[in-house]
Fold:
Amino acid sequence: MAEPVELRIESHAGTWRLLRDGREVHSFGHVERATHEAVRLAHELIHTGEPATVAVQAADGRLIAIDLTEPERSREAGGDEQAAITPDRGPSG
Structure:
């Protein structure tokens, strides 16, 4: 099996850089946009048969892996997978 494409998001000089196998692909003003793009790219790669991973670099330097499970596909397979990130609904009431 081929080595997975590594998509990593790192903070650099006030921006968030999206790296693919160590080379910069794009920079973003917000980590959320960088993460969204990395996950989108990873799913695109996975759907074409190429393995991929996504990780975000935390302030302390450690890498946090992003779960790439697609909730819709998991439910189709009989699982009960929930989305890893849910939107903030703000205060209720």
User: Anything to note?
Assistant: The longest strand covers residues 5-12.
